[in-house]
Amino acid sequence: MSDTGKLTQPTHYQAYLVRLWREDNSTPWRVTVKHVLTQEQHHFASLEDYVVFLMRQTGGDGER
Description:
The chain is α+β, with helices and mostly antiparallel strands. It has helices at residues 3-7, 47-58, and strands at residues 16-21, 30-35, 41-44. A three-stranded antiparallel beta sheet has the order 1-2-3. It starts with a helix and ends in a 6-residue tail after the last helix. The model has no long low-confidence stretch (mean pLDDT 84).
């Protein structure tokens, strides 16, 4: 198996493009996450929701 094949195994490697922004200092950060391999996108209204997503993707909550 090539090194590239090893990197595509979702339980061992995840790569995302993460964009964070907010309208002004009084609004919460918003997050858009794009999976590099699948191009699947997820949108989050808060950093907390984004962290929950990451925990689920990495097995941090026991689901994977």
